Amino acid sequence: MADENNAQAQAPAQGPQFMLQRIYLKDMSFEAPQGVEAFKQQWNPKIGQDINTTSTKVDDNHFEVVLKLTINVTMEDKTVFLVEVQQAGLFLVKDIEGQQLAQLLNTMCPQILFPYAREAVDNCALKGSFPALALPPINFDALFARAVAQQQAQQEAASETTN
């Protein structure tokens, strides 16, 4: 019986596979252009957030997904600090193609990476001697659905102008 369990554990998995292989910080920068002047002001910031994801096929079964966050904190239209983080992950993706692959790379992978990027942004703010910056959760499914809808609308508009 133990031999049967061993054989099953060593048998290659069948069907679609998705597994995180590694999470790593690919790039990060922090700027506080006002220096000490930023600490003389009453803290009432406006926080701008830009988010983007890219994916690159590494080999037949692996993708690198990079979540790029840019956080711009301003007061009175002057930048107090700017944090840019590229949080990356290496993912095993096997036997998943087409729309399912696109959705996986643009929703599930960034959702896994986001807590790490969020922590990196918060650490930068704290190390810059600014208050903690806890970013709210992001609905990557909604962002992906919006991007797909925009792409379809652009394709329809382009096909109407050529007809």
Rg (CA only): 21 Å
Number of domains: 1
The major beta sheet can be summarized as:
4 strands, antiparallel
Helix percentage: 25-40%
CATH level-four homologous superfamily name: SecB-like
N- to C-terminal distance = 68 Å
State which percent range the strand residues make up.
Answer: 35-45%
**In the CATH hierarchy, what is the architecture at level 2?**
Roll
Q: What overall geometry do the principal axes of the alpha carbons give? A: flat
Query: What is the residue-averaged pLDDT?
Result: 90
Low-confidence stretches: none
CATH class: Alpha Beta
Q: What's the helix count?
A: 3
Helix/strand/pairing category: alpha+beta
Spatial strand arrangement across the major sheet: 1-4-3-2
Order of helices and strands, N to C?
HEEEEHH
How many distinct beta strands? Answer: 4
CATH topology: Bacterial Protein-export protein SecB
What are the SSEs and their pairings?
Elements: H1 2-10, E1 17-31, E2 46-59, E3 62-75, E4 78-94, H2 98-127, H3 140-162
Helix pairs in contact: 2-3
Provide structural commentary:
- This protein has a single domain (15-154), classed as Bacterial Protein-export protein SecB (Roll).
- Strands 1-4-3-2 form a 4-stranded antiparallel beta sheet.
- By secondary structure, the protein is an alpha+beta fold.
- Strand 3 (62-75) and strand 4 form a beta hairpin.
- Helix 2 (98-127) packs across helix 3.
- The protein is flat, with a radius of gyration of 21 Å.
- It is 38% helix and 37% strand.
